[in-house]
Amino acid sequence: MALSVFGIDFGTNNIKIYNGISKTITTEKNIIAIKDKTEVLAFGDEAFEMYEKNPDNINVDFPIKSGVIADLSNMMTLFEMFYKKLLGPRGGKLGRFCVAVPADITEVQQKAFYDVVFKSNVKAREIKIVEKPLADAVGLGIDMTSSRGNMIVNIGSDTTEISVISNGGIVISKMIDLGGNKIDELIVEVVKKRYNIFIGLKTAEKIKIALADAMYEESEEDNEDDLIYVYGRNAITGLPSERAISKETVYQAIESFFEELIESIKNLLERTPPELQEDILDIGVYLTGGSASIKNLDKYIEENTELIVNTVKNPDQTVIRGLSMIVSDNKYKDLMYEPRESSF
């Protein structure tokens, strides 16, 4: 019998929903376009097509910023629309929902994720939350009954959450303002400074995907594989201008990102109990999140921390994979809970 259970990962850039009825995972941009402050014009991937192209009367907004909900109303509207898109206007039977939340945020901020479902028009039989590092661990296949320590570094869009897991719980976790969007911003800045070209964040992301390399080594001259041609606005003439961006330029822009990431991993490891440090030295670090796919990032972390780095296929999917297992298997029920000040 199909289970009416849903796992939800409200990410800064993407929303991922596990549908227990169809046993599928849906991923779309977590963004909404609102015209004249009241009319929802588009949402998800369709709204993202409008991003950085919209006139003043259309507001295109990501309701989650820096890992927490910045606009509860827009996030509720988005959730309702995604749910209807999945199940149709009637929305199906009463469902059970589990929402992933960052560990290193306040109880009030965690409850806001819960309230997206609770205060929406979606009928819910039960709503639980689970901390993202635990969902990450389940999705990675970590034995949640083991006392061995495991470190997970989840690099998201706006934030990176570094956590140590043992005995099915979080021993220590720290969320820092460092993610893929920061890399995009650094690329925008360096292109403007070096070439007098203004580019948007979408173009910067395209550059990042094509050229970002954590272990880049400068050569005497760039080959075609080390260049990408993009269009931007010339700061001097104000006209559209095409420019070749080199891998060396990108690396210089984002080198500080990698250095800060290493420093954060070392800081958390220093605060980890010695017995668990030994486990981490033996097992290594698990690298997850969308920005974990940056070329040679695993090798860079290994070289600068002397830790083994474990990578996985589709690292941006580990949290939602974990959620799909948590909501479908009763052995994980103790990982889920309701916020202390729930509205029930």
Termini gap: 28 Å
Helix tally equals 10
Number of strands: 18
Taking all Cα atoms into account, the compactness measure Rg is: 21 Å
Strand order of the largest sheet: 3-2-1-9-10
Unreliable stretches (pLDDT < 50, length at least 5) are none
Main β-sheet: number of strands, strand sense, barrel status?
Answer: 5 strands, mixed
Mean of pLDDT? 92
Measured as a percent range, the helix fraction is 25-40%
Task: Give the helices and strands as they follow along the chain.
Answer: EEEEEHEEEHEHEHEEEHEHEEHHEHEH
Given helix and strand content, the structural type is alpha+beta
Percentage beta strand: 25-35%
Shape: flat
How is this structure best described in words?
The chain has helices at 45-48, 72-87, 107-118, 132-140, 180-195, 201-211, 247-270, 274-283, 297-305, 318-328; strands at 5-10, 14-19, 24-29, 32-35, 39-43, 58-61, 64-65, 68-69, 95-101, 124-131, 150-155, 160-166, 169-176, 197-198, 227-234, 240-246, 285-288, 309-310. The protein is α+β, with helices and mostly antiparallel strands. Helix 5 (180-195) packs antiparallel against helix 7. The longest helix is centred in the C-terminal third of the chain and has 24 residues, at 247-270. 42% of the residues are buried.
